[in-house]
Amino acid sequence: MSQTAPTSAAIDSAADLQQRRCRPAEAALDGAEAARLLALLPGWRLEDGRLCADYDFKNYHHTMAFVNALAYLSHTEDHHPELTVTYKNCTIRYDTHCIANHAGAGLSENDFICAAKATALFQAGTGAA
Hints:
Blueprint: H1 14-19, H2 31-38, E1 45-47, E2 50-56, H3 60-77, E3 82-86, E4 89-94, H4 109-123
Antiparallel strand pairs: 1-2, 2-4, 3-4
């Protein structure tokens, strides 16, 4: 029997997610809870079971400034995304590999916490196009 993570009823906004810290994930979120949290994160989508977003920048320097800031965030949260970086774009993909399902991906609250923090980082003005 697979475990499902408890719902995160206290999370009602992206700001609530940003205030949280990642912790060891024991079980995947169920589909309803993942959909509820996704609705709090404009610009993010589910793709192949992963939480994804694309960010566009003015130039390569701004792209890399964002990527470096995101790397620091990932280090402090101990939760690391898959990144695709081009000259003026960064695609971020989050999933929690330790709870991956048979399809190869699983989502935990940590993915949504980091997505909210990545959005805040982008909005802070690291070179948005």
